[in-house]
């Protein structure tokens, strides 16, 4: 299949305008407490800590984020994907040419300068140490350092150590750990993989857990004297707020802020003890013993109304080819698109703030089925070419969409048309295989959900070419840690186990005109075949 390239053009006029920005990210106050660097719409800005007009420091079309200040305040390191993936760059804090410090294909995210200003520490998933006991995954990064002037990268720690903050001596630094795959933006998370605040002694290599707490503790910073630690936590059953404790008695924790409803994010502090953080999309500063003060920020931008050509050669999911091989449907940025297999003609089918997924074509190539999360839970939708004289979606002028089996409580996803196009199979409530007759809207159950125990989404299944059977991935016993490939009548009934190997088998598909089933399995080793 040729490489998929989608161009979406939005045509507007270009004007300059002043805005009061919201949802600024990666906020960090300068070491002397006089300026604040932040990320807004993929660029790095700085603004006086007392408020005012922000200065734009980066102007590339790429995405820049995570600015950190050098100890003397003269440089800012940040991450940029201008070369394809996030690399580490450093530039003068007053603006100027940025120097690239890293070129690895992994994403490198800066964390802190060393107190002497000679190195930048960053997190990246490059190479686990040979003695590491961690599962090798890109989600679990290592900690590295690179000279500010460029040079060889060195590994500092083989374990995930995020949001590093040094004391002035450079002997110790604080960091938040990462134990699992949980999304960093999840709120009110309590489990065995929640983050804790640790202290690392660079001389002895000793790690000390300072907050052994069941909930989330993160983003720790030292006070200028190194005797007190500020951090973000969801203690006391609320949202993220700022807390503190003396370094010599970590159990003596005090609440510094008492925000409600929304979480506090992106904590930092200056040498004058000014705290800086965000709440509800805006930046606040706070002096010791004082109340939080919102920072007034003005921005001048010229991109409110502009022409944007969004060229996408990656990121597409749910790609499926029409039965006649002339169309390719896929999702990109949560929307459904259909492109021609022979021409550079692409049609956007959905225009919603909700995510769409699980696309399939009807046998006549004129109807799409997919799931959408609009309304709060996953529902099935059909999109049809309305005009008979129009042969395909990329060139269609009118597309009619309808919701199938609407419900506010039942979740439906992963649709597949029957070979004759008269029925549509789908997964209900993430566990049951169901079929609906598209003419009568009558629904029948094929599996009752007792053979699938994951709530992550659904399971693999496929119609037989004659429409009489399904092959599917299932779990024969709820205590089994593996899945098998099964066969079940399209009318429902008992599942016949075709593999029963004791290993994980997935992705069954009918081949050889329905005389064989192709699937993947790990029975021959750690790699699937």
How would you briefly describe this protein structure?
With 529 residues, the chain is an all-beta fold. 0% of the residues lie in helices and 44% in strands.
How would you explain this protein's 3D organization?
- The chain is mostly beta strands.
- Helix content is 0%, strand content 44%.
- The chain has no helices and 47 strands.
- The N terminus is likely disordered.
Compute the CA-based radius of gyration.
27 Å
Overall pLDDT level:
91
Helix content: under 10%
Spans where pLDDT lies below 50 across 5 or more residues: 1-16
> Helix/strand-derived class?
mainly beta
Largest sheet: 4 strands, antiparallel
Percent of sequence in beta strands: 35-45%
Number of helices: 0
Task: List the quaternary state of the chains.
Answer: single chain
Shape: globular
Distance from N terminus to C terminus (CA atoms, Å) equals 22 Å
Number of strands: 47
With strands numbered from the N-terminus, the spatial order across the biggest sheet is: 3-4-5-7
